[in-house]
Write a structure and sequence with these properties.
This protein is α+β, with helices and mostly antiparallel strands. The protein contains five helices and 25 strands. About 20% of the residues lie in helices and about 40% in strands. The strands form three sheets. Strands 4-3-2-1-9-8-7-6-5 form a nine-stranded antiparallel beta sheet. It is globular, with a radius of gyration of 25 Å.
Length: about 425
């Protein structure tokens, strides 16, 4: 009798546990509706940064894929509390806090942590809407190609960029390349004589607009970025056979400059120096990066794969991390997203200096004759331990053929140093 009683109890308990598990999975699975969503970040001036994401069910858990052009960013840190949801972006220290409305839509805020301040934007999203931006009229012209873009600033200081656009009907994708990198993947429309491009990756929240005056001129451009003031811009059609050299620092004569640094590895806590025996006789690539830098993300993807494929040839890498703070604990916490998402097999060292410190070069690389003023920056060191080249910025995957050129130039430099 007792044995039968306990058998029934275990059976009931097992069934009850299974039902609870299924209910829990079901509740989580349907808390955010699966499928395509349209999301909006609202500026105080009425302008909106619009993007799309897709919610999928992964073994009973919600997973989000944020879409920009042909790029997708996986977001799997999603926490529910009653009718609220907290979504942590995988990179760049930003997150969403929103209420889940009865119709399944989301209403809340997006917060970006800049270290010394927080930027907050109202946010809402609607399921079942694949539209990003709407073209209300047939395009008058096609803007596909490369453009010399100008961003006039204060005191008549004009910064330059290269716009790369690809238009298919009224759909538009592209990016802007600057000396320090690109704006990554942008997507939008051409409606009549107006073009619009938006992009969101957890760091960038961008809206570009402009009037298409002719097949070779854009005017009245506006750049809206998070809570920043509106930045004007205009552009002229231009064919670039090649881009201005990013390897602008070629005035370092071979055999003249060696680096001296000993910094703590952020994972092992061991001190590492380029003078260590592990790097002697090798070509060493020093990666200057920060977890807050979107272009550093693209570069790290390339570098980790290249390192795996070429380490045995006598190529080594050292990352030197500059975060928004000089605090080791906070810097390691910020950099953890890179360690979690990339198989970084080479040491990444704590610089001990904040990225915005104007004296960071002197403090970390006192022997370097030029200042590091762009992220990412790459320093190439030959087999004798001498600095040979310094490369600022990166033309990332969103730049298409220019990304291919960047990779080929990088490989040529390393191969040349290995051949010496």
């Amino acid at each position: 009798m007792t044995k039968q009683f306990f058998s029934k109890m275990f059976l009931v308990a097992g069934l009850w546990g299974m039902l609870l598990f299924m209910a829990s999975c079901s509740g989580n699975r349907h808390t955010l509706r699966t499928g395509i969503w349209r999301a909006v970040l609202q500026r105080t001036d009425g302008q909106q940064v619009v993007f799309n994401f897709e919610v999928t069910d992964c073994s009973g858990r919600d997973v989000i894929y944020v879409s920009n052009a042909n790029d997708q960013m996986k977001v799997d840190s999603i926490l529910f509390n009653g009718d609220s949801v907290f979504i942590q972006m995988p990179f760049f220290d930003s997150y969403f806090k929103a209420k889940i409305n009865q119709d399944g839509s989301l209403q809340g805020t997006w917060t970006k942590n800049y270290g010394n301040r927080l930027a907050v934007m109202p946010f809402y999203a609607r399921p079942g809407d694949s539209a990003r931006l709407t073209a209300y009229a047939k395009p008058y012209r096609n803007v596909s190609g490369s453009w010399a873009a100008y961003f006039p600033g204060e005191m008549k200081d004009t910064s330059k960029a290269i716009g790369l656009f690809d238009q298919n009907g009224d759909q538009l994708t592209g990016t802007f390349m600057t000396p320090s990198g690109d704006y990554r993947y942008l997507q939008g429309v051409v409606s009549g004589d107006t073009m619009k491009l938006t992009g969101f990756d957890g760091c960038h929240a961008l809206l570009f607009t402009a009037i298409i005056d002719s097949t070779d001129h854009l005017s009245g451009g506006k750049l809206y970025s998070i809570n920043s003031p509106v930045a004007p811009w205009y552009a002229e059609k231009k064919v670039f056979d090649s881009l201005p050299s990013a390897y602008a620092v070629n005035n370092i004569k071979p055999g003249t400059v060696k680096l001296r640094f000993r910094l703590k590895d952020m994972l092992t806590n061991k001190e590492v120096s380029i003078a260590d025996s592990a790097f002697l006789g090798k070509v060493v690539v020093i990666q200057i990066l920060g977890s807050w830098c979107p272009n550093c993300l693209d570069e790290t993807k390339f570098f980790t794969q290249y390192y795996k494929e070429n380490h045995q040839r006598g190529v080594d890498f050292i990352g030197v991390d500059f975060e928004r703070t000089a605090d080791f604990g906070k810097s390691k916490e910020a950099m953890q997203s890179f360690f979690d998402h990339f198989d970084i097999s080479y040491p990444v060292l704590f610089s001990g200096t904040a990225a915005l410190d104007p004296d960071l070069t002197q403090k970390v690389f006192p022997d370097l004759p030029v200042k590091i003023n762009a992220f990412p920056t790459t320093i190439f060191v030959d087999k004798q331990g001498y600095v040979r080249k310094i490369h600022s910025g990166i033309n990332g995957p969103a730049t298409g053929k220019y990304y291919d050129q960047f990779k080929e130039e990088f490989k040529d430099i390393v191969n040349g140093l290995l051949a010496e």
